[in-house]
Amino acid sequence: MERTYVMIKPDGVQRNLVGEIISRFEKKGLKIVALKMLQISRELADRHYGEHKGKPFFEPLVQYITSGPVVAMVLEGKDAVTTVRDMMGPTNPLKAAPGTIRGTFGMDIGRNVVHGSDAPESAAREIALFFAPEEIIEYNKNVDTWLYE
Ligand code: DAT
Ligand code: MG
């Protein structure tokens, strides 16, 4: 099974979308193996979004992601990285299909509600950035046999 890093951004928390978003992932069949709320520091934001350093939207992006608490989680499941990205929709909410999270709840690329790792390698990097190994719980659920053949 694959793991991915998912984060409900400050706008998602402020707009009371935490339960709704987690519920979508749960109902899909993704397993929550780590979950916490935190306030991202400037330093952590720099590291998380390191690939975007120097781009014109970098400063506003760091301002936004550090502007209030986020809900961070690790989700596990078959093709979890792609599954979450598909459920989120593309970066610009106005380009995202209506049924996706960004397509349903967002209006602006700079307020796009949710983050999900874009590849298994970035997932591993981001999980390690936000969670200590002991914060990630390995466990079985009886429902697994009803989710997977
Ligand atoms: P994603 O979050 O879909 O993985 P990304 O990694 O390319 O997108 O960018 C990270 C975040 O930066 C994105 O969620 C919103 C912001 N962003 C990206 N491109 C942008 C742009 N052209 N203008 C403003 N903000 C942008
Ligand atoms: Mg990205």
List the helices and strands and how they pair.
Elements: E1 2-8, H1 10-14, H2 18-28, E2 31-38, H3 42-48, H4 58-65, E3 70-77, H5 80-88, H6 101-105, E4 114-116, H7 120-130, H8 144-147
Antiparallel strand pairs: 1-3, 1-4, 2-3
The structure holds 2'-deoxyadenosine-5'-diphosphate and magnesium ion (MG).
2'-deoxyadenosine-5'-diphosphate binds near residues 52, 109 and 110.
Helicity, as a percent range: 40-55%
Strand segment count: 4
The 3D shape can be described as globular
Task: Name the hetero compounds present.
Answer: 2'-deoxyadenosine-5'-diphosphate, magnesium ion
Q: Give the CATH architecture.
A: 2-Layer Sandwich
Q: Report the β-strand fraction as a percent range.
A: 15-25%
Helical/strand content category: alpha+beta
The CATH superfamily title: Nucleoside diphosphate kinase-like domain
How do the strands line up in the largest sheet? 2-3-1-4
Rounded mean pLDDT is 98
Major beta sheet, specifics? 4 strands, antiparallel
EC number: 2.7.4.6
Domain Nucleoside diphosphate kinase-like: 1-138
Subcellular location: Cytoplasm
Organism: Desulfoscipio geothermicus DSM 3669
